[in-house]
Amino acid sequence: MGVTERKERHKEDLKKDILTAAKELFTQKGYESTSIRAIAEKIEYSPATIYLYYKDKNEIVHALHQDGFRLLVSHFEVLNTVSNPFERLKAMGRAYIHFAMQNPDIYQLLFVMKEPLEHVANCFEDWHEGDRAFDILLKTVSECQGIGYFKGLDATMLSFSIWSTMHGMCTLRITGHLGHVAIARANQLDLDHLIGAAYETYVATLENLTT
Amino acid sequence: MGVTERKERHKEDLKKDILTAAKELFTQKGYESTSIRAIAEKIEYSPATIYLYYKDKNEIVHALHQDGFRLLVSHFEVLNTVSNPFERLKAMGRAYIHFAMQNPDIYQLLFVMKEPLEHVANCFEDWHEGDRAFDILLKTVSECQGIGYFKGLDATMLSFSIWSTMHGMCTLRITGHLGHVAIARANQLDLDHLIGAAYETYVATLENLTT
Amino acid sequence: MGVTERKERHKEDLKKDILTAAKELFTQKGYESTSIRAIAEKIEYSPATIYLYYKDKNEIVHALHQDGFRLLVSHFEVLNTVSNPFERLKAMGRAYIHFAMQNPDIYQLLFVMKEPLEHVANCFEDWHEGDRAFDILLKTVSECQGIGYFKGLDATMLSFSIWSTMHGMCTLRITGHLGHVAIARANQLDLDHLIGAAYETYVATLENLTT
Amino acid sequence: MGVTERKERHKEDLKKDILTAAKELFTQKGYESTSIRAIAEKIEYSPATIYLYYKDKNEIVHALHQDGFRLLVSHFEVLNTVSNPFERLKAMGRAYIHFAMQNPDIYQLLFVMKEPLEHVANCFEDWHEGDRAFDILLKTVSECQGIGYFKGLDATMLSFSIWSTMHGMCTLRITGHLGHVAIARANQLDLDHLIGAAYETYVATLENLTT
DNA sequence: AATGAATGAGGATTCATTCAT
DNA sequence: TATGAATGAATCCTCATTCAT
Questions:
Q1: Cβ A167–B166 below 8 Å, yes or no?
Q2: Residue D199 has pLDDT above 70, yes or no
Q3: How far is A169 from D164, CA to CA, in rounded Å?
Q4: CATH number for position B108
Q5: CA distance A16 to chain B (A)
Q6: Same domain for A108 and A170?
């Protein structure tokens, strides 16, 4: 293992560090308000150094995008072990929400932000991953129908519907709009619990569709 | 493009023009990335002119916010004539989607953009309207339960769940993420139809909850 | 009295109002930080109206300058009735301080501000008044010597010296620098009293010069 | 040796250059009217560069302030060697005037400019130095009384009075007001001599207080 | 590989001033 | 006479980016 390898390792580490710092800052301050300077400060390097690893701000977002999808899909892949498809579907929902709550910044990057600026083309590419995620959902829904759930419903439409519900819950939570309404009438301060409860209610509506 | 021509345009609508321009830009680029300069350019006035009509950037968002909610609530109020609560609920869903599709920019302003920092206080005020909208939904859901729907489910949770589904559908559509997935597999070019279809599927899931 | 006359009267009034407003604002905020808009607001006219009466901001300062000197000289002229020249000298000092304390803005305009911008030429003209004021002082000092005061001292030099003392007291007070030092060690909150006391001490030094 | 040191030197030089440019502009145009742009232009750098060396405009004034007081106090400290307090007092006066004449811009910064608003707190700090300077004067006056001068006069009041005279002379000279009057009647072109003469006259008045 | 220095472009605002009405 | 509307130029300041070292 020569010096070269160690250097390579270090290089990879630093790239990761930049991403991590950027992710945190995006969450805290939002994309626009996050400056390269701030990222550099966080990792205790000079701004110029960032440019040795990423061409510009866009490329950082781009990288986060890819990582984000990879992470989400990995959350789903674990669930392949669940054999009952409806159980798997429920678990997927929970995993999705969990992912969104744990990585609100990334979530928004993937599903809320219109594809950042010049990188539309690249983003399309990234979205092959996004499609894969949807495929997993679709397949699971179909399998549910195979064991008697969701009779008479179109699998694709239902998948869209389910995804929408998940997405709606997550974004209303993340953007704080859920908080507004909830606080206004809330006997419930903990919004994460609230989301959990709402999700279980939603699952109940799906469950009742069997009969 | 000279001074004369510009003046010929109805100056009295300038305030509205500013709002319209701002609305479009906020949607396209986001709040932070929209500069007063850009708004001014769009309406072909000088930046300073904007300040004759609005104190600052926040006041513009504020105005759009208010207008937006007023419009949405007006969409709902028509539906008071529908006596059957479940029919009314379905109609509300359609009205909500219709509103979002017709005014994607406003929709995002109301339900996607994190409310601009300093005006949180004011925004809370604005959100009394938002709360009202939610109240209407909640009341309708309760009435549905009164005639046998949604047995055993918590009205508030279900309302959140329904709102989330609607919101998810609308935002996935507006931000173009629905398009990505759909186009990838689409035998279906018209996304608005797709949304309609997905909505009907969702309604079907709700309908089946009776039994 | 025709309409013309009344109009003329009104016109004069308004010019004065503008000056008064400007004067107050200059005092409160300083010259640079006082905007035409602010002046206009204070007199409840539109900014454009100001320009009907004064060509620009400089002309306003110019007018205040002239008024200021006229006012100061008028303060002095009253004292002609005091026959004893030393008494008159002492009274002049008090009048000078009084003037400065009552009109700190004007005082600074006359004696601190380097002549504003383009109006140097005009200001020189204005200073004929300033010279007159100094002449009055010089004449008084000479008369004092006539009755035995200030033996062996050059009248002009002494006059400068006296003026400097007065000016120094006034400006240290006005700019707040006296306050700094005084507060630091003061058992004396009222700076105007302090200035009075310092003046009396100074007078005492002059008085003792007789013998 | 080489590069590093030279760079460091250059950096220090630039900081000084900025201060020098700022000092001149502040004096010429006043604090408010001096823009960062103007300073940048004067040193032939871009405005943004200024911000690499000073956080903002206030920090520049702050730095000038500190430097200024340090310089003034250093002028005074030399005089500790003069054992006769009255001689020392006279020397202090000359030193003060000398300082003001050599550094009119700094002098104004320290004693004429109302301290820039937000930095009052910091300025107070700076003024510990100013207080020290006054303390030195006060102590000297007291010592003079100890050897028979200024009988029956309050030391603090007399100190204020003396400071005022010095300050008045200096500012009338610096702002050009002395010139106005002097030139008008001058058999005396050299204002610095005039100030010297006026000072000696003043000293004479103090001297005569003994008897 | 890393960075200190530098900058051009652009951010929100403010203001003196003009001009048609 | 008075002003509403408009603007160019200026304010301070921030930031992504480059480049010589």
A1: no
A2: yes
A3: 73
A4: 1.10.357.10
A5: 27
A6: yes
Question: At CA A123, angle to CA A117 and CA A128, rounded to 5?
Answer: 165
Query: Which residue, D10, D25, D55, sits at the end of a domain?
Result: D55
Residue A175 tokens, joined: 């953007």
Number of domains, chain B: 2
Nucleotide with smallest C1' distance to residue C59 CA: E16
- Euclidean distance between CA atoms A162 and A171, whole angstroms: 14
The percentage of residues in chain A with a pLDDT greater than 90, rounded to a whole number, is: 46
In this structure, the answer to whether residues B102 and B37 fall within a common structural domain is: no
Indicate if A51 and A65 belong to the same structural domain: no
- Is A185 in Cβ contact with B111 (below 8 Å)? no
Q: Which two three-digit tokens encode residue C200?
A: 């009396």
Cα-Cα-Cα-Cα torsion D66, D71, D75, D81, nearest 10 degrees, comes to: 70
* Closest C-alpha to A90, from A208, A204, A209, A210: A204
List the Cα angle A183/B168/A105 in 5-degree steps.
70
Measure the CA–CA gap between D150 and D153, rounded to whole angstroms. 6
In the predicted model, what is the mean pLDDT of residues C33-37?
A: 91
- Contact in structure between B75 and B98 (CB atoms under 8 Å): yes
| Protein CA B3 to sugar C1' E20 (Å) | 13
pLDDT, mean of residues A75-80: 89
CA dihedral of residues B135, B140, B145, B151 (deg, nearest 10): -70
* Residue C27 sits in the same domain as residue C79: no
* A151: number of Cβ within 10 Å: 10
Note the pLDDT of residue D117.
Answer: 41
- Which one-letter amino acid corresponds to residue A206? L
Q: Does the CB of B47 fall within 7 Å of any strand E atom?
A: yes
Distance of alpha carbon B57 from alpha carbon B50, whole angstroms: 9
Q: In this structure, what is the dihedral angle of CA atoms A81, A82, A88, A91, given to the nearest 10 degrees?
A: -80
Q: Within 13 Å and on the Cβ side, how many CA atoms surround B199?
A: 23
Q: Is the pLDDT of residue C190 over 90?
A: no
Cβ-contact C101, C173 below 8 angstroms: yes
Which domain, by its residues, includes B16?
A: 1-55
- D36 and D64 share one domain: no
**CA distances (Å), origin A138, targets A86, A134, B93, C76:** 12, 6, 24, 97
Q: Are residues C48 and C99 in the same domain?
A: no
Do C31 and C117 belong to one domain?
A: no
Same domain, B94 and B80: yes
Distance from CA(D27) to C1'(F18), angstroms, rounded:
36
Choose the closest CB to D205 out of C175, C198, C206: C206
pLDDT, tens only, A160-201: 999 999 999 999 998 888 877 766 555 545 888 889 999 999
